[in-house]
Amino acid sequence: MDSTADNSTVDMTTTSTSPGKIKNVKLVLLGESAVGKSSIVLRFVSRQYIENREPTIGAAFLTQKCLVKDRTIKFEIWDTAGQERFHSLAPMYYRNAQAAIVVYDITKSSTLDKAKSWVKELQRQANTDIVIALVGNKLDLVENENGEPINDEEHERQVSKEDAHAYADEAGLLFFETSAKSAQNVDSVFNSIAEKIPLDTTYSPNSRNAVSARGNLNNGVNLMQPATQGNSSSCAC
After folding, report:
1. DSSP string for 37-105
2. CA dist., res. 80 & res. 10, Å (int)
3. Origin, by domain of life (predicted)?
4. Which of 128, 236, 139, 133 is nearest to 184 (CA)?
5. Fewest beta carbons within 10 Å, which of 64, 102, 223, 231?
6. CATH architecture classification, 23-196
């Protein structure tokens, strides 16, 4: 993402069809650099995909609402940087998070190893009832729209769906393979997370921890840049 600081947030949702009270859900994205975390979020929030995105610096904050069954979920999304130098800042973003998406690149097995380490950290230090989704991204590089394998020596699948799914089941995670480029399964990730969020959990966007995170961003410890606004459409959850 662009490294220009910006204190605004993005909400691409049309709210006229949203009944009842809005439930705020803090969600954090974790994973190695260049696995597509920001592309997944941008696809979900603004229905866009941008080739050759700049790496996220620190973290970006975005919001999106979606209607799930009889309630409206407002995701407050912290898209964190994947570079190792920002690892120590991660607890500031996943503290009090009700959900996390841990992303890896299905064409790079080393990124799954990193994803597993993030899962262990979340299970050890984050909320005990946090909903975690393991997401293998860049499906478009190895499969066509019909699910048939693409013979591409440059982008061969290195992580089998069966092995990753087995790990996710063992660790108690949601599991998806996605393509931020084609939008395949992106909405399904957020929809499934929304359905699993307990009704009685609460999160205040004005809590001390949330304000602390944003305060650090504003003071230059990190930089955040909201997504470029596209079509003003609601979540397809």
Report:
1. HHHHHHHHHHS---TTPPPP-BEEEEEEEEEETTEEEEEEEEEE--SGGGGGGHHHHHTT-SEEEEEEE
2. 16
3. Eukaryota
4. 139
5. 231
6. 3-Layer(aba) Sandwich (3.40)
Query: Which three-class secondary structure state does DSSP give residue 133?
Result: strand
Q: Are 76 and 64 in contact (CB under 8 A)?
A: no
Look at strands 22-31 and 71-80 and give their pairing.
parallel
| DSSP-derived 3-state class of residue 195 | helix
User: Which residues face 103 on adjacent strands?
Assistant: 31, 135
Q: Residue 8: how many CB atoms within 10 A of its CB?
A: 9
Coil/strand/helix, residue 135: strand
Backbone angles phi, psi at 132, to 5 degrees: -115, 130
One-letter amino acid of 53:
R
**Which of helix, strand or coil describes residue 27?**
strand
What residue segments make up the domains of the chain, in order of their start? 23-196
Report which of residues 67 and 102 the model is more confident about. Answer: 102
